[in-house]
Amino acid sequence: MDLSDEVAQQFRTAAQILVVTFAVFAASESLVSDGVGKVFLDRVLASIATIAIFGAWFQLSGPFASLLRSENSQRIAVEADWIQRLTQFAILLFGLTSLLKVWQIDITGALTGVGVLGAGLAIATQDLIRNLVAGMTNISEKRFETGDAIQVEGQFVGTVKRIDLRSTLIVGFDQIPRYIPNSDL
């Protein structure tokens, strides 16, 4: 199954679930009287619709990340797995937040805690972020390519074997592979 078939299948599945959910919602408007049962049914139907939408996005994050993995050039290999995991995490987080909103659960305190945690993680992962930004810069500017011989800050000379987002694999003339953080290049 190629990418367009997979995307179409995910959209079809989500659309079918949404059509049935909206049909049940329309039927419940005329059949179920106001009250606790109606509110509960509306929230369940809204939850099903939310899960269908975010579930389709979650399933599609893999095929879209595979677009980043397809290498038109064998010279630069880009790690896309972390992009897929980050995207899936964000989709799960937004989906869970949406579900809690449907059920009218106040999450402002939790979001404040997540913000503080995020700031702490940002401080703790400065080196990782620096390497990712440097890797994206190295790849986009094509400062060097696989097969190029480069000298690393006067430390050693070697041949570039692979360029990733976090590090670059360089094999020295002594045939020892070294992973150099992109921020050092």
Give a quick precis of the structure.
With 185 residues, this protein is of the alpha+beta class.
What class, by secondary structure content? alpha+beta
What is the typical, i.e. mean, pLDDT? 85
In terms of DSSP E residues, the strand content is: 5-15%
Distance between the termini: 40 Å
Poorly predicted regions are 73-77
Spell the H/E element sequence.
Answer: HHHHHEEEE
Number of domains: 2
Radius of gyration, rounded?
Answer: 24 Å
Global geometry? elongated
Structural overview:
This protein is α+β, with helices and mostly antiparallel strands. It has two domains: 3-105; 130-184, Roll (SH3 type barrels). It is 64% helix and 12% strand. The protein contains five helices and four strands. It has a four-stranded antiparallel beta sheet. A hairpin with a 3-residue loop joins strand 2 and strand 3 (167-172). The longest helix has 34 residues, at 36-69. The protein is elongated and about 80 Å long. The chain starts with a helix and ends with a strand.
